[in-house]
Amino acid sequence: MARNHPISYCILLAILLAVPLTNAAMDYQAALLTQFIEYQQAQAAKSATAAGPAETDPWADPRPQGQQPPRVDFEQYSGYVTVDEEHGRALFYYFVESPYAAASKPLVLWLNAGPGCSSLGWSAMMELGPFRVNPDGKTLSRNRDAWNNVANVIFLESPAGVGFSYSNTSSDYDKSGDKRTAVDSYTFLLHWLERFPEYKGRDFYIAGESYAGHYVPELAAVIVAVRLLTGENPTNLKGIFVGNPLLDDYKNDKGSLEFLWNHGVMSDETWANIIEHCSFGPSDGILCEEAKSPFNSRNFVNTAGDISRYNIYAPICIQAPNGTSYSSSYLPGYDPCIGNYVEVYLNCPEVQKAIHARANTDWRLPWNDWPLSMVPTLSWLIDTGLRVWVYSGDMDDVCPITATRYSVKDLNLTVTKPWRPWYTPANEVGGYIQQYEGGFTFASVRGSGHLVPSFQPKRSLVLFYSFLKGVLPPAVSLWRQ
Fold this sequence. Notes:
EC number: 3.4.16.-
Low-confidence stretches: 1-70
Distance between the termini: 53 Å
Largest sheet: 11 strands, mixed
Shape: globular
Number of domains: 2
Helix content: 25-40%
Keywords: Carboxypeptidase, Disulfide bond, Glycoprotein, Hydrolase, Protease, Signal
CATH architecture of the largest domain: 3-Layer(aba) Sandwich
Radius of gyration: 22 Å
CATH topology of the largest domain: Rossmann fold
Strand content: 15-25%
């Protein structure tokens, strides 16, 4: 186990008061870090006790030419890491190394969102993992655009109660929230690095999507603050990469409705009524709720039609009377019913045994604490020199690009490289990108919904690879050069 660092609460507050956060943000970060330190001190009292060459070409093809080998050509591991021995709280992880020079690749921790979505079931099996579950719910196929082409990736099921992660103390589930999630995730990392010591000192990044707009910056804040307080950086954190993030509750509410209006789903009259009665702040009352009601979750399908908020232009999964499911239309590379296949696959006893998961894991997940805005935390992380990239699929209404733009504006950063298209190696516009002082980068992914690596796997891989290299993707197509 990594060495514990007893830190006084007064020193902690002195450090926090030195960073440019609002009072509410400082109180939140102080509470989060204090909870982590108290846990570390408790663990210390119970226990008396403990890279490869960089690639030179930033645009080298991460995959070798030719056919993929027929067998799995990379190492993969899964299991549990206990983060609280007293309560029996353990987090499940699935770790995949890169097939290509894994020793020279960075380490990436992926966090899913919800709160309550499985990183294994959603992201590993439906988005950026090395496999996709086939419609039979029994077999897998390779995802040629998996992110472990360019990095070694940990998919963490967090917090306890999500996926296969669990606690032996049932009351833990009633205490789930942002602070505990950040503390448990950091504790997981320390223990995981003891289990995989070859990754100590390796360049490390945290990535995620949706509510991971909270998880990722909060975990990064713990890591950076502990480094500032102790002078040590066991994870060697270099940056964070967050897609379609929930960054501000009020801005997301406004951005979602504005997105529907901008894309012709909402009438001018409905939008005008919303704007008249809603300020999108804590003072909004019943008139605002009534104005928004045609597009709340209960009325959305009746008002907008049978479309998906995760991608308003994508096909949906149709349930046939005989129990089978099929896509309403064809979108290359995307199957809206894949969630059904994943559920069948991961509930198979043979699969659960093979991945070392505890069988018959049930969970419930109330959520007890979350800040309304992550902008102060992001601002602080940028000021510390951390690489921070945020990206948005431009067809998502759950955490839409309109909402993210409001939060980016609230960062109040000077533009250093203005908005422009970025290109993939296939000479297509992958999206648009802009960079700000401190290196903060905001990008869109063209033609994608909420789950960017699922809707646009090739484009997402190019953007992710660019982030890891710390360079913006190409500004012009190769055929124009």
